[in-house]
Every structure is written in C-alpha cells, then in structure tokens.
C-alpha cells in the first residue's frame, strides 16, 4: 500500500505537458554558440538506406569559414557510410555506390549563406541546413542533453531515475520516456544484447519503478529537452545491466507505516539521518576493516542510494537533516528527487578537502526559507569576539588548540518561516561533531560553540523583528552518548567545570570552564540504546533536540527491532544503507 502511494505521489509530481512540440515539421540541427567558448558545436541526426540514423556531432572554430564545416560534414558522413558498407561486403563484392555526390548548404530567409562567412555569423535561428537533400531547421543554443546515464545497479521496487546534465534546458520541463526489453535475458548480457532486443514502452516521467516482472530486462530512457516552447534533440541511455531482484522487505518499509501520510496543519515531521558518505563506505579499508560483514556490492553507492532514497522519501518528512552527504549525491540525487516530492534543500559542505557535508530539506508548502548559514566552528572560534572566552581557554593548551584548529566540523543553520501558523519561525541547526572516541572535551567545546552561535542568530533575528517567535530544532550526529557532557549541556542548560569530559584526554585537559545557555532543549526521541550499530561499537549518537517552550512532541517513529538490525550482523547491510538509523518525530507548535 505504501509503495503504491509513493509511486503515485512521484508520478503526479512528475506529470508534465507532453503535448508540446515545435511547430516546424523539419528535424533540427542544434548549434551551441556560447559566449565563453571559442568553438561552436553542431549536432544533428542523419540516416540513409545505407546508414541507419545516428547523431553527428561537430566542434568547429567560430572564426572558421562555413565552407570548411560543409567539407567536414560531407567527409564524416561519407566515412560512416563507407564503414557500414565495408562491414556488409564480402571479398567478392564490388562497391558500386558513391557518397561523394551530395551537397551541403545553408540558407537564411531563402538566400544561400556564403561559404566564406564565419561560423560566428553564419548560424542563426530559423536558418535551414540542407544535407544530401534533407533539410534541418537551425536552432541556436537550443535545449541540449549533454549527458544522460543510468545507475549500474537497478533493483525491482526501488525508484529509478536518470543522471542528467542539461544545457539551455529545464529538467522539470523536459520529457522523459522509459522503455524495457520485451523479452527477459535470463542468461545475462551486455549492452549490445540489449540493443538487439525489441523495446516496449514502460512509462513516462522522471521516475520509473521497476516491477518484479522487470527482473531480467534491460531498461532504456530517452530524454527530450525543453525550455519554454523550445525543444532539442533526444538523447538516450541503456542500462549497463539488467533489473535485479531487490533485497526484499526492508526494516524501513515497516517504519513507513507510521509515516504514510503528510502531517496536519500546525505540525511538522522531522528526520535526522547520517546516511554514510560514499568515501567512508566504498573503500578497501571499509570493506575489510570497518564493515567486513557487509557484502561489497551493498557498500557500493549505486546500491545504497536506491535504499536511501526510497527510505527517505517514505518518511514524508517536512524537515529533513542529513549528515555525511556527498556533494554529488546532494546535487544529482537528493535535490532533484526531493524537489519533485515538494521539498527545497540547502547543502553545506565541510571545510578542507572533504567533499561531504550537511543537508537540510524543508517542505515548501509548510515553510519558506528566510536565511541559511554555514560556519566552520574552528574558523568562527578564531574570528568572532562572541567566542573570545572559549578561544582563550582553548589556547591555554597548545596541543588542544592544534587539534581543534585542524577540525573542519561545520554547523548548518537554516531559518524558516511557517506558511501555516502566522508569526512562527523555525531555526534548524544541523551538525556532525568530531568522531574520535576519547575526544569528549573537543565535542563539548564544539557543542558550546554551536549553541553560542545559535543564540547569537536568535538575538540578531529578534532585534530585526521583536514580535517574531522562533523555535529551535537542533539535529545531528553528535558522536556522544547520553551519559556524556554534550547531552547534559544541551538538555540541562549548563555544564560545570568539574565535568569529566573536560579531562577525557589528560594532556588536552580544559580547566575552569563553566558555562550555560538560554535554550530550552530536550531530545524528542529520548535516548535509545543505539542509533549507530557496527560490529565494533554501538551507542546513541544521534538526536533531534527541540525547543520545549514553543514545541511539543506529538509522535515518534519506533526504531527497527534489534533482531532486524542484527539479522546481517550489524550496520550497514543489504537492507540498511547506513551504519546509523534515522530518527523521526512529529513536532507540533504550542499555542501561545
């Protein structure tokens, strides 16, 4: 039932007006003439009785004479036809055909364009290119599919979508059609086997959900790019492999039963999830040391993405905070998928050379983005006078200072305005604290820095609008269990100078720090036995802290059964795409 509703939501979200077509009956030659490029790029499809239709692409200098382009077109097509004929001939056959007798010309408003004209001036919208008697309408800077690809791993029951790179085109407006091979290829095969098969239409839209009956079939997708009323050339991609059977019912499918519908007005569902970045999952060290119990194929990003996207979509979250998000995954997978599902997103990459970071998505029917900020904690400690007291204490211990300066721990802050409750604002904070097991002192300092920054943002916002009411939700992977200082500081509002966390590493001890904060926070999902479970460690590291003065918890989605978590030893596994578990709760505005 849930899967059906998910498919329906995505299909409705991706419906486009597919009846739009160019008024011309001529095929097109696409000319890309970018200001920042010294060359022009031409693309058109051409075929004859000797040569099945194929796409020809040309890259030529803008200052080159038009006649030289014509010569290149004739040469390339002639060579393609000759190669095709050579394959068909036997040694006793004589080639009596010729490809040297066709002409190429360009006309504009009924007049032939001179072959001495430069490319930069010759190619204009509305001109007509004639190749061997076939006429093409010239379309300059038309919508164009630069690349289209399908993932290596495709599983029945999981959303499939193309990786698109478009130019002068809008993904939302472009037409995407899906096909599958009519016959199942039981013994496997490669792309040329798929190409030799008959294709049948399988659907239309950005997503395709392969069915169980699709197992053993190849998938093809064709994209026709659009922008406003303009259209470009189709481009297709064929799956490298066949559709495979999925892992069966995943534990998150059962959790989806609690989130099958959107939240009511005045409520919003929060999700916090460390999704395990690819650089930490798919490496030799991960396969042999960190997660040796997980099959290598299940650590591959193409496999895990399918589980992650289906899981996240099924939670129907209104505010989704993610950690360990690969930059490419955000831009190519999460953002386009969740946008179609009605959410907008903000990405904050970590500092340094790391290409993963934090992502916050919010449902646009419930919230409007007012502001977003990304701060590297070590940088603001050194530059902002708000943190001068903490900075002074840190630099009393040079060893500690060097460790903190080297960290690229980042805080993401997103200010949202409620679209449902007048005058209500939501300040979402999202972070992923330092991971070393003995670094409780560093994590506590990082938490104090985060809270101080949040308090300062609240102060500045209220100075601009004294009547606004801002609730705080602080999500993330804090890498700290409930018995340590981070949890104590956030939930009680203070930490004493006697906290054992200050001396977690004796040579990096922090002396004389006693501080408090004004936020009223509690953990919405409590303190479960674990949110991270591997063969070497398990514990509660992830939290959704919420503002108890302005919000209340109306429901919590239970964590998976322990038997499910340990069915394949630990996390990640073939049914769990991350080594962490997602936290999900529904929060409700208090009436004030």
TrEMBL record:
Domain (2',5'-phosphodiesterase 12-like N-terminal): residue spans on this chain: 143-244
Top-level taxonomic group: Eukaryota
Database matches in InterPro entries: CCR4/nocturin_mRNA_transcr, Endo/exonu/phosph_ase_sf, Endo/exonuclease/phosphatase, PDE12-like_N
Gene3D superfamilies linked: Endonuclease/exonuclease/phosphatase
Domain Endonuclease/exonuclease/phosphatase positions: 272-580
PANTHER family linked to this entry: 2',5'-PHOSPHODIESTERASE 12, CARBON CATABOLITE REPRESSOR PROTEIN 4
Annotated protein name in UniProt: 2',5'-phosphodiesterase 12-like
Gene behind this protein: LOC106460413
């Amino acid at each position: 039932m849930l899967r059906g509703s998910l498919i329906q939501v995505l299909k409705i979200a991706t419906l486009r007006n597919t009846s739009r077509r160019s008024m011309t009956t001529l095929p097109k030659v696409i000319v890309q003439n970018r200001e920042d490029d010294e060359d022009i790029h031409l693309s058109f499809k051409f075929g004859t009785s000797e040569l099945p239709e194929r796409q020809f692409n040309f890259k030529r200098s803008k200052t080159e004479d038009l006649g030289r382009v014509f010569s290149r077109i004739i040469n390339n097509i002639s060579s393609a036809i000759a190669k095709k004929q050579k394959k068909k001939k036997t040694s006793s056959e004589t080639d009596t055909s010729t490809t040297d007798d066709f002409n190429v010309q360009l006309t504009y408003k009924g007049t032939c364009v001179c072959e001495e004209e430069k490319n930069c001036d010759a190619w204009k919208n509305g001109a007509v290119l004639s190749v061997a008697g076939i006429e093409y309408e010239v379309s300059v800077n038309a919508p164009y599919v630069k690349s289209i690809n399908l993932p290596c791993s495709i599983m029945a029951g999981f959303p499939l979508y193309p990786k698109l790179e478009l130019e002068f085109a809008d993904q939302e407006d472009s037409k995407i059609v899906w096909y599958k091979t009519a016959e199942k290829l039981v013994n496997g095969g490669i792309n040329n086997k798929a190409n030799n098969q008959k294709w049948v239409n399988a659907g239309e839209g950005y997503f395709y959900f392969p069915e169980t009956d699709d197992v053993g079939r190849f998938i093809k997708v064709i994209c026709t790019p659009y922008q406003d009323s303009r259209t470009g050339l189709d481009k297709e991609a064929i799956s490298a492999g066949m559709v495979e059977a999925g892992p069966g019912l995943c534990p998150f499918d059962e959790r989806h039963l609690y989130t099958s519908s959107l939240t009511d007005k005045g409520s919003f569902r929060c999700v916090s999830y460390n999704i395990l970045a690819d650089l930490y999952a798919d490496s030799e060290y991960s396969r042999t040391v960190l997660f040796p119990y997980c099959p290598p194929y299940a650590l591959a990003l193409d496999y895990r993405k399918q589980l992650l996207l289906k899981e996240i979509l099924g939670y129907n979250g209104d505010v989704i905070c993610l950690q360990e998000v690969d930059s490419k995954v955000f831009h190519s997978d999460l953002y386009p998928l969740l946008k179609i599902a009605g959410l907008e997103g903000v990405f904050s990459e970590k500092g340094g050379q790391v290409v993963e970071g934090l992502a916050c998505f919010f449902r646009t029917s419930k919230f409007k983005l007012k502001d977003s900020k990304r701060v590297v904690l070590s940088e603001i400690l050194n530059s902002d006078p708000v943190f001068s007291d903490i900075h002074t204490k840190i630099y009393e211990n040079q060893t500690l200072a060097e460790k903190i300066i080297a960290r690229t721990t980042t805080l993401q802050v997103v200010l949202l305005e409620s679209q449902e409750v007048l005058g209500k604002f939501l300040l979402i904070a999202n972070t992923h604290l330092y991971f070393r097991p003995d670094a409780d002192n560093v994590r506590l300092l990082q938490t104090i820095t985060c809270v101080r920054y949040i308090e300062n943002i609240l102060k500045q916002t209220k100075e601009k609008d004294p009547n606004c009411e801002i609730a705080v939700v602080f999500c993330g992977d804090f890498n700290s269990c409930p018995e340590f200082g981070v949890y104590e500081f956030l939930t009680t509002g203070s930490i004493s100078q006697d906290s054992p966390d200050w001396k977690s590493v004796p040579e990096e001890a922090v002396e004389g720090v006693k501080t408090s904060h004004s936020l009223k926070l509690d953990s919405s999902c409590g303190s479960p036995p674990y949110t991270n479970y591997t063969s070497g460690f398990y514990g509660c590291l992830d939290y959704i802290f919420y503002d108890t003065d302005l919000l209340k918890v109306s429901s919590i989605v239970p964590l998976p059964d322990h038997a499910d978590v340990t069915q394949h030893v630990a996390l990640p596994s073939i049914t769990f795409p991350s080594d962490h578990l997602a936290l999900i709760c529904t929060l409700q505005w208090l009436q004030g």
